[in-house]
Amino acid sequence: MATGNGNGNDNRNGIGAGVQDRAERWATSLADAAAANFSKMARLPFLWQHAQRVRKGSTPADVVYEEDRVKVLRYRGEGPVRYATPVVFVFAMVNRPYILDLTPEKSVIAHFVRRGFDTYLLDWGVPTDSDRHLTLNDHVNGYLLNAVEYVRDSTGAPQVSLMGYCMGGTMSAMFTSIHQRLVRNLIMMAAGIDFGGADGLLQLWTGANIFDVDRFVAAFGNCPPTFLQTAFLMLKPVANLVEKPLNFYERMQDEQFVDDYFAMEGWLNDNIPVPGEVFREFVKYLYQQNRLMKGTMPLGKHVVNLKNVTCPVLNLMARKDDLVPCCQSLPFNDLVGSTDRRTIECNAGHIGLAVGSKAQKELWPQACDWLAERTDLLPGAKRA
Amino acid sequence: MDSMFDQAQRFTEMWADLAARMAGSGLAFNPDTPPPDAARQFRAAAFQTLGQHADQFMRSPQFLEMMKQSLEAAITFREQMNAMLTQGRHATEGIARQDVDSVLVSVRHLETRILDGLETLTGRVDAVAQRLDALEAAAPPKKRPPAKKKAAPAAKKANGGGAAKRAPKAEE
Predict the structure, then answer these.
(1) C-alpha distance from B76 to closest chain A C-alpha (Å)
(2) Which DSSP letter does residue A83 get?
(3) Residue range(s) defining the domain that contains residue A152
């Protein structure tokens, strides 16, 4: 039955044409999808070339200090150094630190170098079996302290600004609480402090009633990289094991995406062992006993008291972080003795905080501004 | 531990939730959307539901118990392997990892004792230095000794320019 303008024939023709038009578009899109699938399958053998092209780190750097397996890298900027206080990045011990300088477009370090900060990175290196007895104290009051002293001596600066990522952030907080006189500013990036809740899966899995860390370290020595990698993958099994490969398959023809994917995956799978004693102390004292919050965290002959941190503090957190949820990082600002403290939350995941496009566009320029405001300029230099 | 009924209920809930979300995604379907995009929307709804339920499952007592047992089994297996390899190495008069570990531990203890000793010594030297500084600060200022009278340049020249330039006795 015709309705509307009374011309039933036209209307029927109109509906028929609409259906036909849709059917044609569906057929076209299905044919396109099938063609794209063939094209993707043909591309598969050449992906190896992409994987080979991945570089580890993009900003030029020199190794300026070495101690055992630990290295300090100094980044070379195109312009002169403008700020008097050098910045030292401290990375976690579970992965390699080049995620902070993954590609030219996804580099945290490049932000600081471009702004004229004298930028250093502490690379913990790859622990061997002989490192299994090295403790957190050896790393914080040994390697990290020596690296900071080296940077101070070589630059002539009385203090450095520390930026710690993940486990490196927790270690930087410990360092600052003991050696506050050496630290001008502290930036924490997705760093766990309060391990008391049960929001994170890792907190549940490392519970004392489930995970006997003493027996584990006694049997395995260093914590094997595959163990950690499996645990991290299992935090989001559907996203990591199903969605990610599917997403890769769908966007396989996008050159930039493929390059970024391999850079990222290359880093994610470049796990390193964690020295056994460090792993034991981290799991036992932090995850199981939450000693940093209680002010009873032993570090050699010291007990870490975060009230001793009196320098300006910037706490960066990722809202979608499943490894270190915001609730683990947030209490830090209330524990420190600083009056100048700020929190920035970014709508990203744990790794997205470093390499995510939103973090690159919004977060890191803000972080650089924050640091620049709290750092003296070198004589004759102008702010960027 | 949850009863079998609770577990079955959760399992049913998961499938019901999955079906509901996929149906919701289907109802939101627009005929103008090309089929591959529509399939992606269905898929995203399904994965989101599965992801949420996987997270809940990994927090459940059943999963935690299973994880505990797996970890204990892995540790026990490793302990047995270590014991077997150590026995094998010792039987062939070789060096086992355990031996290297015990040497490392000894070296570490030695290092700790030496460092502790050095720290004590440094503390003592600092204390002595502080006391000396305090004594020096408290002591009255010393009188300046009178300046020595310099020899006249002519006389110096006559003596042969000083002891350093004097010729050895044997040559004299």
Answers:
(1) 8
(2) B
(3) 53-196+290-373
pLDDT, tens only, A96-150: 999 999 888 889 999 999 999 999 999 999 999 989 999 999 999 999 999 999 9
CATH number of the domain at A191, please.
3.40.50.1820
Q: Say whether residue A22 is in contact with chain B using an 8 A CB cutoff.
A: yes
Tell me which chain B residues have a C-beta less than 8 angstroms from the C-beta of A29: 34-37
| Within-domain flag for A217 | no
Start-to-end CA distance of chain B, whole Å, equals 111
Q: Give the C-alpha distances (Å, rounded to integers) separating A348 from A137, A138, A200, A242, A344.
A: 32, 33, 16, 20, 12
- Taking the Cβ of residue A42 and every Cβ of chain B, the question of whether any pair is shorter than 8 Å is answered with no
d(CA A122, CA A132): 20
pTM: 0.82
Tens-digit pLDDT profile for residues A332-372: 999 999 999 999 999 999 999 999 989 999 999 999 999 99
Asked whether residue A228 is domain-assigned, the answer is no
Would residue A74 count as lying in a domain? yes
**In chain B, what residues touch A205 (CB-CB under 8 Å)?**
64, 67
ipTM over 0.90: no
Per-residue model confidence (pLDDT) at position A13: 59
| Number of domains comprising chain A | 1
The residues facing A373 across adjacent strands are: none
Beta carbons of B79 and A210 less than 8 Å apart: no
